[in-house]
Design a protein that fits this description.
The protein contains 15 helices and twelve strands. It is of the alpha+beta class and about 425 residues long. Strands 3, 8, 9, 10, 11 and 12 form a six-stranded mixed sheet that branches. A hairpin with a 2-residue loop joins β5 and β6. The longest helix has 17 residues. Bound molecules: protoporphyrin IX containing FE. Pfam families: DUF7405. It comes from Halolamina litorea. This is Tat pathway signal protein.
């Protein structure tokens, strides 16, 4: 949609997602063309993969082979209501609610993709520790210059769709607010029978959305975000060649095999210097690498890169920092690669939460240690110590982002997604099951 009516409608839908609630949803449905989204299967449990995070096969790819990123997102940050450990009735309510929305919308970007994940604070209520096959520490600061709040909610539901109405509809159904969704009747029980919504976080990614929503703190007033950019900083991201496959981020053994870990941080953006003082070449240097700036490798938002930003051409980050006085964001992390691929799978998106341009940086990895290794490479401490590059200045994009909150979560396999015990195989969990029966 390129006409002004289309843009108005897109801005309206994005605003409705940010506001949320039944009236925003019905305003959206009343104002737009009728939503025509296929329904999901009668029995999602038998039709859907055990890996909740197996989204790639359900996503279309662009002409270059990059996965499409669903455009609208809601993150429901949830607290468990009970005093002790979850009961079977609560587990059944949560499972029924999740299954209800899966029956309503097909599992795709046009329909709905979702995950539910749990924090170390959630698992602390069980006697048993998480099994050794799960690496899920409490979040912490990962550089000298960040001081994030710990995201200490119990659980996060991530809803993703190309249609704002779908994520909003799913949210209302999970809260037990609608009896029917996309013509499919919803269960009596709701997610909120066992979990309370502490905070809703929203966001978007995709061509045009950042430019249409740049009237927020952190972006200069003159509207500098390129019209076709998928993210506020103006470049395509998460190219196929710079992402690992889902196998590399999946837990391979133990009771949570088939799951993954999720790192979720809120990064606020300050793009004044980025757009007002930095030149286009400086932006390319800082995001990719100086080589790409001098060779003109990146055109516009970088669509010309196809599915591969050619990071091998960037050269050694320390040498670049010494000779150019600047080093690229993605250039710094190439050494962390395994089999020529990064070890974290990025599924981040932009946000206007709190009227501030920000990023909900969401990544999946087999262990949180894989995230820490990658984030430490992004700090570029060694590069800065050995060159004129500063701790944050000319050091990739560190100067423009501030990590205000970080959380670590376990995305269990689908069969354990409803209020899982900490160690489904352990004696302690068995004893707890017996005690509850
Ligand atoms: C405002 C925040 C961020 C933006 C706009 C951003 C954008 C980008 C862009 C444009 C690229 C190069 C192209 C591509 O992705 O394929 C990239 C690469 C990458 N980014 Fe970020 N990024 C951000 C934050 C982060 C954070 C917090 C991490 C966590 C450590 C991270 C990890 C990575 C990794 C692993 C790569 C690929 C490195 C490789 O090529 O081996 N990014 N990012």
């Amino acid at each position: 949609m390129s006409d002004s009516h289309g843009i108005d409608r897109r801005a309206f839908v994005k605003a409705a997602v940010a506001i949320g609630g039944a009236s925003a949803l019905s305003a959206c449905l009343d104002r737009g063309p009728e939503l025509d989204v296929a329904r999901g299967p009668e029995d999602p449990a038998s039709a859907f993969p055990e890996r909740q995070h197996a989204w790639n096969a359900a996503l279309p790819t662009d002409d270059a082979g990059n996965n499409h990123h669903p455009r609208h997102r809601i993150l429901l940050a949830l607290d468990y209501d009970g005093d002790g450990t979850p009961t079977d009735a609560e587990r059944e309510a949560v499972e029924a609610a999740l299954t209800g929305v899966e029956r309503a919308y097909e599992r795709s970007a046009d329909g709905l993709l979702l995950t539910i994940s749990y924090s170390p604070y959630y698992f602390a209520r069980f006697d048993a520790d998480l099994p050794g096959s799960v690496d899920l520490p409490e979040p912490r600061a990962l550089s000298d210059f960040e001081d994030p709040d710990a995201d200490d909610v119990d659980a996060i539901v991530h809803l993703a769709s190309d249609h704002g109405e779908v994520v909003m509809g799913a949210e209302e159904a999970l809260k037990g607010e609608v009896e029917e969704l996309n013509g499919v009747s919803q269960p009596e029980s709701a997610l909120t029978d066992a979990l309370s919504v502490r905070e809703r976080r929203t966001g978007f990614i995709g061509d045009g959305l950042p430019a249409e929503n740049q009237d927020v703190n952190g972006v200069p007033d003159d509207g500098p975000v390129p019209e076709d950019a998928p993210l506020y900083m103006g470049f395509e991201s998460a190219f196929e060649g710079n992402q690992p496959g889902e196998d590399r981020v999946t837990i391979e053994s133990g009771p949570f095999a088939g799951g993954t870990t999720q790192q979720l941080s809120t990064l606020t953006l300050n793009l004044n210097q980025w757009y007002e003082q930095d030149s286009r070449d400086q932006r390319v240097s800082k995001m990719f690498c100086p080589h790409h700036a001098s060779e003109g490798t990146v055109e516009g938002t970088g669509e010309n890169l196809g599915n591969d930003p050619q990071m091998d051409d960037c050269g050694d980050p320390t040498e670049t920092a010494r000779s150019e006085g600047v080093v690229g964001h993605s250039q710094k992390m190439v050494d962390v690669r395994e089999d020529d691929k990064p070890i974290i799978l990025r599924r981040d998106f932009d946000s206007t939460d709190g009227d501030r341009a920000s990023v909900h940086f969401l990544s999946l990895q087999r262990t949180i240690a894989d995230f820490v290794t990658t984030r430490e490479a992004m700090n570029g401490d060694a590069v800065a110590a050995d060159s004129a590059v500063g701790q944050r200045t000319n050091n990739g994009i560190l100067q423009y982002i501030n990590t205000v909150r970080r959380g670590n979560f376990l995305v269990p396999p689908r069969s354990l997604r409803a209020l899982p015990p900490s160690n489904p195989d352990s004696d302690a969990a068995d004893t707890a099951e017996v005690a509850r029966a």
